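Researcher: Can you fold this with S-adenosylmethionine in place?
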Amino acid sequence: MTASQQPETEVANFRNVIEKQLFYGRGEVLEQYSKAWELRTGEAYVFDKFLPSGGRLLDVGCGTGRTCFLLAGRFQEIDAFDIVPEMIEVARKRNSELGTGIHFFVGDATQLSVASDQYDAVLFAYNGIEGILDKQSQIKVLSEVFRVLRPGGVFVFTTKSCFNSTYARHFYVPRLLARMGLGQHDGGTPLEVEVMQGSQKMRWHTTNPFSMKALLRKTGFELLYFNSEVRLGRGQTKPSLTANFHRWDQFYACRKPQ
Ligand SMILES: C[S@@+](CC[C@H](N)C(=O)[O-])C[C@H]1O[C@@H](n2cnc3c(N)ncnc32)[C@H](O)[C@@H]1O
């Protein structure tokens, strides 16, 4: 990273922290996450198949702990963190009710305060990584995850694809029409699109799965598996190119080489 890119990355990261704290830390969203304790079909398949048993797990962007509580019996030790203190508060309360002994803390995925080669598995579940707003910060997260995994350790995460029909309606078609002089478009990117949901303006984040796979290779990871919730929901567990173009959840399992 050059010296001139550094402040931009810091601003983007600061914006990410504020956005996440405002979005996830209050009201309906916090309530929704406080009640979500189940795995999605694709998650159940990918976790079973690719997360090792025993050893140490780090759950990055754990929210209220939905995934790590369900994996608690499977690992000897779990550390879990999120950037939103209110979510960690909910997770800690449930942790003491269940006696699960998970170590929850508030932290930022772009700056892990953890020693190298520590974990057998790292998880960043349910569309957290694309919410980290700029590419340099995403690269930082991948490099940090790579660093804290032991050689042979596995990283499992989920993204939403930027190639989907909802985006065609909200982004690609308006952009094409604007280029033809038939309307206006704000010139945003499909990785971050503002849409109106009722009277509320929402910002959606997505990932280009081809760029993400290239970033993983650049970081040093071996991609073990890639599939979509749509395919896994239909029982289609074999990898397929079509998984790149399915709406919402896409699963990646990758490994730090031995
Ligand atoms: C869609 S939620 C998923 C929560 C949880 N992993 C789950 O599956 O239920 C994404 C989470 O990523 C967290 N997050 C986003 N950026 C982060 C960062 N830089 N460091 C740590 N957590 C972050 C958000 O606060 C949010 O809780």
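Model: Folded with S-adenosylmethionine in place. The first strand starts at residue 56 and ends at 60.
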